[in-house]
Amino acid sequence: MPFLHVGSTCRRRAVEESFPSSNSRRRYSTMDVGLTFISPSPAEERSEGAELAPRKRLLEVEDFSRLVHVGDPQVSPGGSRVALVAVRPDLEKNLYRNEIWIYELPAGKTLAVLQGEGDSQPRWSPDGEKLLFTSRRGLGEKEKGTALYVYHLGGEPRRVYQSRYGFVQARWMPDSSTILAVAPTPARSIDEDGDYVDIRGLPVWFDGAGFTEEYRSHILLVDYESGLHRRLTSGDFNVVYASPSPDGKRIAALVSRDQLRPHVTEVVLVDVETGETETLLSGSYSFSAVEWSPRGDALVLHGHALPRGLASHEHVWLLSLSGEPRCLTCSLDRNTAPYVSSDAAWPRGNIHPIWAGDGILFLVNDGGRVNIHRVDPGTGHLEQLTSGEQVVYSFTVSRDAGVIAYARTSYTEPGEIWILEPGRGQPRRLTRFNDWLLGEVELQKPVNLKARASDGTVVEGWYLPPARREPGNRYPVVLFIHGGPKACYGAAFNFMHQLVAAKGYYVVYCNPRGSDGYSEEYADIRCKYGTRDYQDIMEFLDAFLESVENADPGRMAMTGISYGGYMTNWIITQTNRFRAAISENGISDWRADFGTSDIGYWFDPDQICGTPWSSPENYERASPINYVDRVETPVLIIHSMEDYRCFIDQAVAFHVALRFHGKESRLVVFTRGSHGHSIRAKPRHRMKRYRIILDYLAEKLKQASPTTTSSTEESRAV
């Protein structure tokens, strides 16, 4: 295949760069390589590091154990209380300690703190007097199961019902005495000892859950007083979301029936008394949530009609019980889901639209900034309720929409819970779990950079300057690539980014084509992996290097996870510009991924286009393993053994191929951990991962850069 130079045109353009904390901007003309930018003056950069208070200490790996993860805020129906989940790493016992905090509003007084093992997913009863939550209290580490507990705002929580197979969803029915649960149930007889699994369909396994074929998710109704339950649905399908009608007589459910297209869902109504079902909507729709209107005459749906396959934006839809679905937010051309990369924005909680009062509240991801919006279901009028450089990653609303509780993070702030009363002043902060971080540790403020790519499209990104940089010194650069590909970087705190910057590196990251937060067309790179997305990343890097004089182009490394791991594998087969690469839980061979990934058999045909049998050329072209003979960059491959999203064979095969061709490759396999091991693995696992990465960067980038030729002359693309 021919080699193409990336960014070989030299032209005069302009791109925007600004500090999120400042309105000051300064425009410069500059000769660039296929990109344009506006750069802050040196004085502006220095002002970001000006000391107005005693110097704080630098961030260390050990600070991870002091970070409190805060999320899943649940405001009571009357708006007088808020429950939330706080998660603390425990290094000594190598586990996370979950806490459910309950606050009284508006004063923010703490009413109670629950501290049972695995306490999570608090949900208020409609009468506001009881709190339902899931927990693993009393269960051993290897013992399967999760239980439903109810807390009466006094005394001890009471266990109501336990499932060996856990719960997909748990919430109250309108009578405040019955619990609606969606739970996996055995589809047939299984081996209780776990000595074997009998697989007859798809998927074979699912990331974070293991082998899954012997289960189907169905609706259970549980009486909270007696603990007795009855199964409401059955059959060869999965209920993926369920919501009770205001009168409690029907349940709206999303059902997935096609194993080959599990993302395609039907909307059905289930009669609570008889269990009979009625299909309201079927066809090519992919919905992730359904809720009722307050009057019970319509449904709010969250999802899309697959106009661009899996690159489609999720939108808010309205479905009357006797009509066709109507999209209320399609005019936005932005995703209504908070898919912004962060290692500190969890536990998530609700991200779906909520109909409260006279409007439907939902989230909008605009350039990696996520805020709460409201739409009038009658007129379609849109209103933005929160604004700013932040990411709202979970929210709930009181019954009359008078109180909104939401979890938010920003560039230099880990997640906390905030309260907004629309029309009654500015949002106020409810929790301060991570004030120690803001008061004790020096964090770096990111610089926002917008660059115009060689085809004229603006690519947005950021960089963190290295901590305590000194005049006259040059600093190495670490390029981060997000997962997805339909995810994005944005106004969210990232512990890993801050940690690398604290060690003296420039941290650079951007949202290339394929990313979320922009138009649907921008997000659609189906059939084009490794082409325009690769160009955007490399051209953005050129813009950064042109903008920042003390960044050392001779000492650069790159890293990414999942799709970011794939792009890391791809880039080292296309250019030798980097001194080191760290590829995590990525893909090297799309043909193998089709057969081993839990989603490969339906995700890959949509993204790579076709199957390995119908379109083998697509799978061959986009697979980095086919170009390992070109690799000159030392690479560290990190993978987790229990990753069923990008299976371990991807890392092993790439390492073997590299070593067979005489290339420098190192493979580190964590023997436990799923695909999201960078944010969900046990605490000591995460600490070890941080140290391995930092040690590798120090080893490869510690030496001064040699004299290098033009960076663009060493880039190539297939």
Walk me through the structure.
This is Peptidase S9 prolyl oligopeptidase catalytic domain-containing protein. Residues 493-703 form the Peptidase S9 prolyl oligopeptidase catalytic domain. GO terms for molecular function: serine-type endopeptidase activity. Pfam families: PD40, Peptidase_S9. Keywords: Hydrolase, Protease, Serine protease. With 718 residues, this protein is α+β, with helices and mostly antiparallel strands. It has a domain at 444-701: Alpha/Beta hydrolase fold, catalytic domain (Rossmann fold). Helix content is 15%, strand content 35%. It is built from twelve helices and 44 strands. It has a nine-stranded mixed β-sheet, with helices on both faces. Strand 6 (81-90) and strand 7 form a beta hairpin. The longest helix is centred in the last third of the chain and has 19 residues, at 683-701. The relative contact order is 0.11. Mean pLDDT is 90; it is low at 1-52 and 705-718.
Q: How are the SSEs ordered, and which strands pair?
A:
Layout: E1 10-13, E2 17-18, E3 30-33, H1 42-48, E4 57-58, E5 69-75, E6 81-90, E7 95-104, E8 109-114, E9 120-124, E10 131-135, E11 146-151, E12 158-163, E13 169-172, E14 178-186, E15 205-206, E16 210-211, E17 215-223, E18 229-231, E19 238-244, E20 250-256, E21 266-271, E22 277-281, E23 286-292, E24 298-304, E25 307-310, E26 315-320, E27 326-327, E28 354-356, E29 359-366, E30 369-375, E31 382-384, E32 391-397, E33 404-410, E34 413-420, E35 428-429, H2 435-440, E36 441-442, E37 447-452, E38 458-464, E39 475-481, H3 495-502, E40 506-511, H4 520-523, H5 532-547, E41 551-561, H6 563-572, E42 580-584, H7 590-596, H8 600-609, H9 616-621, E43 635-640, H10 648-660, E44 665-670, H11 677-680, H12 683-701
Parallel strand pairs: 4-36, 39-40, 39-41, 41-42, 42-43, 43-44
Antiparallel strand pairs: 1-3, 2-37, 5-6, 6-7, 7-8, 9-10, 10-11, 11-12, 13-14, 14-17, 15-16, 17-18, 19-20, 20-21, 21-22, 23-24, 24-26, 26-27, 28-29, 29-30, 30-31, 32-33, 33-34, 34-35, 37-38, 38-40
Domain Peptidase S9 prolyl oligopeptidase catalytic: 493-703
Keywords: Hydrolase, Protease, Serine protease
GO biological process, one term: proteolysis
